[in-house]
Amino acid sequence: MSEPGNDGDKDPNRRDFIYIAAGAGAVGALAAIAVPLIGQMNPAADTLALASIEYDVSKVSEGQQVVVKWRGKPLFVRHRTAKEIQEAQSADVSGMKDPQPDSDRVKAGKEQYLVLVGVCTHLGCVPNMSGSEYGGWFCPCHGSDYDTSGRIRKGPAPTNLEVPEYAFLSDTKIKVG
Amino acid sequence: MSPFMTKSLKLLGGLAVAATLGLGMPALAAGGHAKKLQEAEFSFEGPFGTFDQAELQRGYKVYREVCASCHAMNLMSFRNLGQKGGPFYDERYSNPNDNPVVKQIASEFEVAEIDPESGDEVMRKATTSDRFPSPFRNDEAAKASNGGALPPDLSVMAKARHDGANYIYSLLQGYDPEPHGLTVAPGQHYNVYFPGDLTSAWTGDHDKVPAGGVLAMAAPLSDGRVTFDDGTPSTLKNQSRAVAAFIAWTSEPHAIERKQTGVAVLLYLLIFFGITYLAYRQVWRGKH
Amino acid sequence: MSDHPSTYTPKTGIEKWLDARLPILRLAHDSFVDYPTPKNLNYWWTFGGILSLCLGIQIITGVVLAMHYVPHIDHAFDSLERIRRDVNGGWLIQFVHSNGASMFFFAVYIHMFRGLYYGSYKAPREVLWLLGCIIYFLMIATAFMGYVLPWGQMSYYGAVVITNLIGAIPIVGPSILTWLQGGFSVDQATLNRFFSLHYLLPFVIAGVVVLHVWALHVCGQNNPTGVEVKSKEDTVPFTPYATVKDGVAMILFLMLFAVFVFFLPNALGHVDNYVKANPLQTPAHIVPEWYMLPFYAILRAIPDKLIGVIAMFAAIAVIFALPWLDTSKVRSMRYRPVMRWFFVLFVITCCLLGWCGGQLPEDMVFSLGKDTAGHAIGLKVVHLSQILTAYYFAFFLIIMPWIGLKEEPLPVPASISEAVLLNHTKHS
Predict the structure, then answer these.
(1) Could you tell me which residues are beta bridge partners of residue A137?
(2) Is A79 known to be catalytic?
(3) CATH number, domain at B211?
(4) Which residue is catalytic, options A59, A69, A83, A142?
(5) Other beta carbons within 10 Å of B113
(6) Hey, are the CB atoms on A50 and B117 less than 8 Å from each other?
(7) At the topology level of CATH, where does C39-279 sit?
(8) CB-based contact, C78 to chain A, within 8 Å
C-alpha cells in the first residue's frame, strides 16, 4: 500500500506532528475516561462518612468481653480481671514481635477496659477468647496468639491487635471513632 | 414513470417537509392547565451558572423551619450540607464531616437507634453521617396527619417536575384567592400553578375554567415567616426563591461540577477534533 | 474477504510464533488494516464505527453501574440516587449510560436509514441486513429492560404496559404474562429478571455484532453508488483511510453526546421517572422513551388491542423482510429519482409517528372550529397516526415492490472510480 499523502506533501515533519498529536489526543481522552471508571470503585461518600459509636462499658462484667459492630468490623470491649492486667503489665516487652507496653494500649486509670478492633493482623479473621496460651485471643485461621493486652506473642501475625481511636466521654461511656 | 409523476411526487415530498416544520404544539384542551410558571432567573441557570451559597443557606433555613415539619428529605445527610457546592461548604474542611457548622446542625437533631444491649429503640444525637430525620414515622402516619395526603419527599423534587426550580418558586407564590364559582372541598387549597383540571368544580362559564388546581397543602410561606440571618428581607418571594434554589441543589448536588466538567470536555473534544480533522485531510490528500 | 489474500507478514519472532498458533494478529490486520474499503464512502458510513463505540460505552458503564445498583424494589430508586450523589464520579457514569442509550438509538436509526437509502440490504447482503435487524431488536429489548431498573414511575408503568401487550395474545396470553412477570403484577421478581437479562443481552448483541461484521467482510461494504467494487482502483485500505474518517465522525458524535450528558442530562428522559414507582397511582401521561415513540404511535393508532399489538410487532418484522420486498435492479436511491421521494416521505413519516407517540391520542393536530355540542373538530393525533401507519406499511409492502418494477433509473456509473472522477469534474 502506498504511504498516505505522498504526492502533495511538502513537509514530512508537519505531517508526522499531526499524526502524533491526533494519537496523543486519543490516548489523553482514554486516560481521562479511565479516571472515573477506576475511581468509582473507591469508597463512596456515604461509606467515607465514618460512623462513630458510643458504648457504655459498665455493661461488660469482669472477665467478659462484648463484641460490637463498628464500621463493619467487630470491636472487642474487654473487662480485664486484676490477674489479666497484672500479666499484661509485667510481660517482658523486649522479646515481643511488636513491642508495646500495656500502658500505651489502655486509657490511664481505666486499665481494666481494653478496646480492640477484633481483626487478626495476619489475614483478617476474628480471633477467639478460647485457646490462647497467653490468656488473650487465639486466631482459629492460622494460630496467631495474642496476650491479655492484645499483643501478638506467637504465630504468623505481624503486629498487635489494633486499638481504635476512642475516648471516655464519662466515667463509663466511651465513644469510638 | 412519467416526468409529471416525478414532479408531483417531488411536490408531495416538499409539502410533507413544510407540514412537519409548520406543525406546532397541539391546541390546549379547555381546562386542565396551570398558569405559565414565573421565571425566577436563578443564579444556577445556564451552562456557566453556579449556586449562590448565601441563598442556599437561606433556603435550608426555610426548608428546616417550614417544609421539614411535613416533608421528608430522605436522600439527604447532614454531611451533604458541607460538601463542595453545598450551603455550608467551607474550603478549610474538605471532609464535610469535620465542618463545625455541619456538626452543629447535626447535633441539634436526635435520631433513633437500637441499643445493642437491650434491643430497645433509644434516641441519640445525630452525627454528620446521619440522614435528615423524617417528620413522620412512616407514610401512613404522614397521611394520617395531613388529611389523607402524603407530603412528598423533597430530595429530588426539582428533577421530578417540569422546570422544577421555577415550579417550586411559582407554586409557593401561587395561592391566589379562590375565583367565585369554584367549589373547593374542605382541606383543599386553590393554586394557579398546580396542575389539575378544575372543570368539574367550576360552576361558571364553561369556556373560562380557571387555571391551576387544588392541593392539600395550605400556603406554607408568607411575608416574615422565616427570619433570615443575613438581613435579606423576608418576603414571600425571597423565601420561595431561596427554598426553590435549595431544593434544586439537593436534587442534584453535583450539577455545577457536571457543567464545569462539560465545558472542559467540550473544549478538549474541540481541539481533538481539529487535530484529527487535519490528520484526515493529510491522509486523504489526492484520494478524493 | 474470500477474494482478498492476506497481506499480513509477521515481522518479529513473537509475531511469527503467535501467527503459527493463533493467527489473531493476521485476522486483525486483514479486517481492520489492509481491508479494502470503497474510496467513495461518505460520512453516513461512519455510523457503523460509531455504533461499536456506543456498544462499548454502554457495556463498560453498565458493568460499573451494576457494581452499585441494588435490584430490589425498595432500594433500586435510592441506589440510583446514591450512584449520582455518593459514588465517586457516579453521576457522570450514570448520565453517560442513560443518555448513551439515546445516542445509541440515534446512531442506529441513521445507520438503518443509510442502509435503506443506498440499498445496502440487497443481494448479496441480505444476511448482513438480517443480522442488523436482530441487533436492533435486541437493542429494543435491552433498552426497555434497562429503563425499568431505576424503578421510577415511568419505569414501572412502562414495564406494566409492555408486559401487558403479551396479554393480548388469545388463550395463552394471560398465562405467558404471569410467567413473564413472575407474579400477578410487575414486582420484585420482574425487576430481578429484567436486571439479569439487561446484563446478559448486551453481550449477546456483541456476539451478533461480530457476525454482522463478519458478514460485512464477506461481501464487502456497499457504497453510495451501489456499484460493486470492480478493481483495486476503487478501494483504499481501511487503515488509515477509513479509521481516520471514522475518528473524525466519532469525535463529532462524542461532542453531541457530551452536550446531552453535561448540559441536558435529563432532557431526553421524563420527570416522572424521578418519582419512585407507586403501583397504586399511574402518572397522568405515560410515554415510552423517544426512540420507541413511533411504535407506540402505531400501537395506539389501532383501536383493537390484539391487532394493535400485532401491528406494532409487524412494524419491526417488516424491516426484516425488506431484502425480498425491493424489486429494483438498481441498488442506490441516488439513481432512483422516484423512490428517493418516497424515501424522504418515509423518514418524515417515522419522525411524525414519533411526534404522535408523545401526544395524547385525543389531542388535536389542528382544529377546524367546534361542532354544535361545543366539541372541537379537526384532525386528532389518533387520525394522523392512522394515516402515517398506513403509509409506513404501504412503503414496504406496496411502494417498494411496485416502484421497483415501474421506475426508470438514472444511468449508473460503470465503476466507483468513474463516479468519483465524474464528481470531480462536476465540482471543478
Answers:
(1) A146
(2) no
(3) 1.10.760.10
(4) A142
(5) 15
(6) no
(7) Cytochrome Bc1 Complex; Chain C (1.20.810)
(8) no
